Amino acid sequence: MNSTAPSPTPPEEEGPCGDWTYHEWAEASSTNDLARSLPPRHIAVCRVQKSGRGRFNRKWVGEEGGLWSSFTVPLDTAAGVHWGHLPLVAGLALLNMLRSMGIANARLRWPNDVLIGKSKLAGILVERPSAHMAVIGIGINIFNDVASIAGEIKDPPARLADLVQDCPSLHDVMASLGRHLDQVFSTFAHGGIPTLQEGLAQAWAGERPVSILTDDETIRGIFTGIDDQGNPVVSLPAGSLRTVPAHLINRLVEEQA
After folding, report:
1. What CA–CA distance (Å, rounded) separates 63 from 143?
2. Range of weakest confidence among 45-59, 77-91, 216-230
3. What is the mean pLDDT of residues 70-85?
4. Residue 82 pLDDT class (50, 70, 90 cuts)
5. Residue 54: pLDDT above 90?
6. Does the pTM exceed 0.85?
7. Which ranges of the chain does DSSP label H, i.e. alpha helix?
8. What is the pLDDT of residue 146?
9. What DSSP element (H or E) covers 17?
10. Which of 44, 149, 169, 191 could form a disulfide with 61 if both were Cys (CB 3.0 to 4.6 A apart)?
């Protein structure tokens, strides 16, 4: 994958953020693009993200008041860490952070969204600019005006300020997220997805009907969780279980129960 990134303007502010180093821009097209030129254990963050993207280049609206950030993490290929599992790593770190704030009803939607009920609070996009580094982009609605974007995106938006009394500042949320990401990534780096299975088993908030779209078929069934490689497992109408390889999936759609 191409590791060359366009040279950004210098950040307006930078400094320590727990065990990370952050670099903040007032405005950027994409924090993932900014992060490509940073070393591991750094954070690119901006106040307004003009061209944020989700999976398959879907639009992510990043207005002022949200946390639009990208964390760079090292990839030790000798240890067998598969970068494609990092959306689950980041999702579990996000859930752990939210639960530490008292938000018990947060859940994951495979593979990279954090929902409150049916409303989307956060999204994750992981990219690999080089063989030895991945960029974990995380966008969280916090203080931004989600009412103004409700008609522009598919999922109804949720925001942290409406869920937490005395909501922490953007910097404090970023620091807390960095700590939780450290904890989950360290566990993952030593043993892969199987070491996170207990936490991930509780991440989905129950089974639910889904449609899984691949290039060749649409698979309908009940999402029951993931296997030890992060692949979705569905219960088919006939009663059998089917594991769908993640790399074949174009989209997983949650259906009405």
Report:
1. 10
2. 45-59
3. 82
4. confident
5. no
6. yes
7. 31-35, 86-100, 170-191, 197-201
8. 87
9. strand 13-17
10. 149
State both tokens at 67.
């946390």
Q: Is 140 helix (H, G, I), strand (E, B) or coil?
A: strand
In angstroms, rounded to a whole number, what is the distance separating the alpha carbons of residues 88 and 184?
10
Q: Name the band, by pLDDT with cuts 50, 70 and 90, for residue 232.
A: very high
Q: Is 225 left (phi over 0), alpha (psi -120 to 50) or beta?
A: left
**How many angstroms separate the CA atoms of 158 and 14, rounded?**
29
User: By the 8 A CB rule, do 93 and 100 touch?
Assistant: no
Which residues lie closer than 8 Å to 159 by C-beta, 6 or more apart? 66, 121, 141, 142, 143, 144, 146
> Residues 49, 130, 16, 95: is their CA dihedral positive or negative?
positive
Reference 98, options 160, 43, 146; nearest CA is 160
Percent of the chain with pLDDT over 90: 74
CA angle 235–239–245, rounded 5-degree value = 35
Q: Is 40 helix (H, G, I), strand (E, B) or coil?
A: coil
Counted residue by residue, the chain has a size of: 257
SS3 80: coil
Tokens 């950040």 label which residue? 11
Give me the chain's average pLDDT, please: 89
Q: Is the peptide bond before 111 cis (omega within 30 degrees of 0)?
A: yes
Q: Letter for the amino acid at 154?
A: K
| pLDDT for residue 4 is more than 70 | no
Tokens of 76: 């030790």
- Where does residue 215 fall: left (phi above 0), alpha (psi -120 to 50 degrees), or beta otherwise? alpha
Token pair 């030593």: residue: 190
Count the neighbouring beta carbons within 10 Å of the beta carbon of residue 61: 18
What values do phi and psi take at 7, rounded to 5? Answer: -75, 115
Nearest in space to 25 (alpha carbons), one of 38, 12, 40: 12
